[in-house]
């Protein structure tokens, strides 16, 4: 599958602004920055973002709507969850987590920022190659 043919949403440009928070190459196409912030994020096989936390004084968090490929989502201290097109992930404020592509698949999701007060992201450590290699065993 060619990345530009993954879904109805264009892949966008290399996600250089956030590259230091990813292992591997991701692409970002901001679909909306008005009422609700929505980004189409595309991950090459094996690409994943670092552990991170969405903070807010009120409201906030993130939703992921998977549009193409296969990927992973994991909360700190929990088992990983395999993601497929149609998967919906609700990420509450204050939950440490990561998400990204399966090792053998491109992956694409819409990342929706849940509106809130004083929202911010805290970027943490990368998901190690060793932990990533063991995902299938943990499911």
UniProtKB/TrEMBL annotation:
Residues 41-104 form the Cupin type-2 domain. SUPFAM superfamilies: RmlC-like cupins. This is Cupin domain protein. It comes from Anaerotignum lactatifermentans DSM 14214.
């Amino acid at each position: 599958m060619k990345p530009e043919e993954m879904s109805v949403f264009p892949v966008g440009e290399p996600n250089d602004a956030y590259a230091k928070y990813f292992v591997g190459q991701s692409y970002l196409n901001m679909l909306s920055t008005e009422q609700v912030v929505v980004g189409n994020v595309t991950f090459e096989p094996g690409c994943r973002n670092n552990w991170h936390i969405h903070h807010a004084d009120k409201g906030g968090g993130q939703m992921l709507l998977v549009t193409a490929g296969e990927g992973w989502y994991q909360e700190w201290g929990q088992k990983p969850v395999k993601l497929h097109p149609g998967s919906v992930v609700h990420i509450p404020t204050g939950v440490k987590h990561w998400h990204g592509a399966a090792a053998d698949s491109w992956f694409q999701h819409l990342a929706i920022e849940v509106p809130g007060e004083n929202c911010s992201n805290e970027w943490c450590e990368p998901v190690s190659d060793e932990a990533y290699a063991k995902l299938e065993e943990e499911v």
